[in-house]
Amino acid sequence: MKKIKILKIHGERGEATEDLLAEEVALRLFIEHRAVVTLLCTPENLEDLLFGFLFTSDLIRNTEDVKKITIDRKSWSAHIEIHHGFDESQAPSYNTVIGSGCGNLLTFASVRSSSSSFQVESAGPLLSTLQIEKLMESLKGRAIIHKETGGVHSAALANPDEILVFREDIGRHNAVDKVVGNYLLSDKNFSDTILITSGRITSEILSKAEKCGISVIISRSAPTDKSVLKARETGMTLIGFARRNRLNIYSGERRIIQSPLRAK
């Protein structure tokens, strides 16, 4: 976070004060010395971000595919060496810049995975509506940068009882890649985990979960029509508007055990 001087206006009064802002950098990725993509991101947990991005973009199968990652914080560049090399025929499908999630940029991974045959008809955890409410409260309680700046998204991987990994970033998809990358580096299985996000659930976010084999996605925000359609086709559980005392189940309700939610 960075502190800057501002002029705050309230009604007819102006006051010189200071404000905290979320940091944003343009991290340029090079794979085998080839410039591939630029990620607009928050400059924390960058190794998690890179491993998560490479994995959810189908560029690596696991952490062992990565020979070396070097992050230069002066030039904001990341140089990645992969054991099996880089297929340059993939290059035309890459965007030059992947933004922070507020525009209509579409990453190549979500397009490539749109024809996936992934199915999770019987997999994944069962959880109650009360457990969902507690997980969302825990997500909110951990969002320190958001509390201070209001300028980032949150993401987490959890089991029905607790959050396992939590990250924040200016980009909702970056936050997801960060928790995926961290969990990938811990060499754990995604199959029984739940993906939680503060941002809207687009087909891009769904594709990232699908790549990991995650069958349950929960957000405090809305899904898009394409993400709901894809969730229903693949058997995933998709929950939106998960806030205190309410939630919407758009797909996969068989994994949700209804229990009384706490009053407001």
Could you name the key traits of this structure?
Ubiquitin-like (UB roll), alpha/beta, five-stranded mixed sheet, 33% strand, 7 helices, 264 residues, six-stranded mixed sheet, single chain, 2 domains, Cytidine Deaminase, domain 2
Structure description:
Helix content is 27%, strand content 33%. The chain is an alpha/beta fold. About 6% of the residues have low confidence. It is built from 7 helices and 15 strands. The chain has 2 domains: 89 residues, Ubiquitin-like (UB roll) (Roll), CATH 3.10.20.10; 131 residues, Cytidine Deaminase, domain 2, CATH 3.40.140. The protein has a 6-stranded mixed beta sheet.
List the helices and strands and how they pair.
Layout: E1 2-10, E2 13-21, E3 25-31, E4 34-41, H1 46-56, E5 66-72, E6 77-82, E7 97-98, H2 108-112, E8 127-128, H3 129-142, H4 144-149, E9 153-158, E10 163-169, H5 172-185, E11 194-197, H6 203-212, E12 216-219, H7 225-234, E13 237-243, E14 246-251, E15 256-257
Parallel strand pairs: 3-6, 4-7, 8-15, 11-12, 12-13
Antiparallel strand pairs: 1-2, 3-4, 5-6, 9-10, 9-11, 13-14
Helix pairs in contact: 1-5, 5-6, 6-7
Summarize this entry quickly.
Helices cover 27% and strands 33% of the residues.
